Fold each of these.
Amino acid sequence: MDRKWAEDLETQARKLHVLASIAMGAGFSAFGLTGYFVNNFEVWLHISSLRALVILLIIPTALLTHYRRIHVNILGYVNILSMSIFLSYMFSSTNTQKPDSIALDIFIFFIASAFSVIWHWKHTVFVAILFSAFHLPLAFSKMSWANFLNYNALWTIITPFLVSLIVHYRFSFTKKEIVMRHRLMEQNEEINQQKEELIVQHQTVSLKSTQLNKAFQQITDSVRYAKRIQDALLPSQNFLKQHFVESFIYFKPREIVSGDFYWFADKDNKVMMIVADCTGHGIPGALMSMIGDSVLNQIIHDKEIHSPELILEHLHTRIRSTLRQDENNSRDGMDIVILTLYKTEAFGVYSHAEYSGAMNPLYYVQNGTFHEIKGTKKAIGGNDYKHKDGYEKHNIVIDSPTTFYLFSDGFQDQFGGNEAQAKKYTTRQFRQLIQEISAFPLLEQKILLEDTYDSWTDHGRFTQIDDILIIGLKIPS
């Protein structure tokens, strides 16, 4: 910045010095013309010759300064020194002018010079010294010291040095003004640059945002398409209604696609109901659910394996084989509930049921009494070195109205309640809820489950953390 403000200061000084030179030349010429009427011709001619010499020095120097041929300070020296020498000569020429009048001219000239130059005060001191060195010998060659004082000539010596102070303050003020202007300009440039950078950043962010939105939309469209495929693989709810008039499916995926799934089949007087909770949710869970659906079709339809505990054994083996879990030690798999309902051949009514579960229990209410059968503590897939035993099978006699509940763990694991101290709904609360609503019709039970969930999560204030799947079905007497 130092170089910039110095260049600006020099430019401003050049303009002022050139204008002052032109004004000085014009004023000097005008004074010369007026002298024709107050002096005799010989005196006027003599003074005019000196004036012409001064003008011939000032004007060409001003032109050279204007076109940057010489340094701006040279013009200042030429102007002041030529004029001061002229006035000093006039001061000493007592035959032509009164010395006190010339002394006043010198005083006025130097004061005017202080406002027509912009340079360091040392240049004014240097000019004052040069002027004194020329003026004093010239003055004392014409008059005595007493006359020098009588004609106020002492001011001709003091004035240039006083002017140095004026020049100093003016130079300092001008310099500060220019420096401040340059600082403001630099700050404005920085602000403009930052503004441009912010605009570029905004444009970049806007572009990235557009790209991200486009990518997100493409991914969302793909996931929605995957949901259509997953929905097509899930059994129709009409299947459940055809076999169980009083029934409901409360299915609430956390994301577009789900890691929870249900599977139904009607095989030789047997109706098989399966609810599975795969590892993860969203796309990973959905992929796992599709694997599970495919493997169940192979076991139950192709191999005709219908006993629930055997289905679980084969499913466990096939999942581990499909995912190569002996090689990579992955723990992906699923928790699952299988309920097989048996009809009598003679009357076509359900006589008994078989249940096997991997981790997840089965709830049922019979004659107003709540029952819970816990699943085997062995998940489908994953590392099975801790559980070498098979899956248990439980028999349930259906000799009175019975309502079965198959579910994943999404409802009971949901956080909610008090915002200041959020907590899980818990299995205990879920068990109690099922007992409380079991006396209502099945469709009302679904509504009560939905209302309870909405209330627990404060109508969505608490984010859903897992897929939710609950199936209820009632077998009349």
Amino acid sequence: MSIILSAWTVVVFVMFIGITIWAWSGKNKKNFEDAAQIPFDDDDEIAKDSEELNNG
């Protein structure tokens, strides 16, 4: 049983390292920057819709 737990720990650790390398790699920077701006993209549209509702 301890061999299975040890193997599982190694597998999870390797996956963690792999995901960390993937997230910090330079080729994903543009995608992450675009995704970071998603909450702010609709602010102008929401403000315009709000003005139209208040004025109309």
Amino acid sequence: MTQANISKFRQLVQEHQRLDAILGSDDELAHLLPVVEVTLGVLAQDEAGHYYGIVIRADREAIRLTHSGSIPEAAMPNTAMYANSAAWDECLSRQPAPNFHHFFAMRMRVPETTVIGDEQTFAQHAHILRRLIEIGREIVSGSSPAASKYDLDRSPITGNYLSVSLENRLIDLHVEHSGPVDGPVLLFLHTAGADARQAHSIMNDPTVVNRYRTVAFDMPGHGFSDRLDDEFGSWSLTTERYIAAIEAVITQLDLDQPILIGASMAGQACLAMALHRPDLIGGVVACEAADHVPGRTTPWPTDPQVNGSIFAAEWIDGLIGPQSPQQLRWDIRWQYSQGGFGTFTGDIDFYSGSWDIRGQLSRIDTNACPVVMMTGEYDYSCTPEMSEATAASIKGAEFWVMPELGHFPVYENPVAFSPHLSKALALIERKRNA
């Protein structure tokens, strides 16, 4: 059988010498070495039901390949990523299809994909396994075309603290601004576990700031803002808390009918405001949002035996479209590694827990508050199908899919996102002026 006719996964297994050489020289892996020795695998099953694939050993000295091909029971790793061979073939392709581009996406959306062995060990070493797949993809499919470098000038953005009363406490929220002070207002909300830095690219986009005043703020306990809770790690976001924070910023800054823009949990907050406080806002651009998003809670960021900074970055890595600039992918990962203890999981309490407005969408009046929804095709958490179904239940809402984008469209690929935002804003203004 020729090399061209064998599956990509089989090809990777056969390239064991090349893989081992790269594992021993890869710069990223050199910074990910564990203190305690562990064996990790990438596995499938053959027609007879026997495991085959690759197994590596990682310790404080190096990461090396120990087995390739058929894996005997005695050589089974401590933990492994498992999928069928066809799924691995798509994952290892140069431009994988949505839901096949990352193991976490496959595990959530591709049947038969799972973790074999110890789940905690997997959570502790997911970063090594992710890099292993990236190297495998480069071996069998070549490097993906490099996205152009994105240069960001933050000099037009200014920041200050805003004292607001929330839950009978006076706290300082960090707020940032750009654009003409007398222009129509865009109010940006950030995703779970992150902060207002996510909006910086749009707050510096000439197509936006030449016309609009842009405002973004850090939620309580995020970025530079004060936290609300006294107990360390006790943060838990609710719809009521989110609405209260948005109301406070709009009121204290005396913002006139701002258009809300957000993705993920911030997209859900846009829908919450359209439902509960349409009188305060002039419309919403709800990205990566749906009426209910189950299946994204995880205990590992707060497990004392798992490095939460590393795991949070891995948990969100597959939500980024693979065509996004690598520089911005690492910026997103870096920001997610910086969150306070329990902040990310506390936000997910809302995003994939208490948030559920099924049966209430018909109450949203798009004549009073225009609604535009759009979702990246690589978002496996809140899929395009989930967002489309939600938009279809809101009379007058607009929806479209954003090609080559994922769960963080504002941040991960600003050049690709900007035309979508311009289209959304034009639709909202047209409806407001009708």
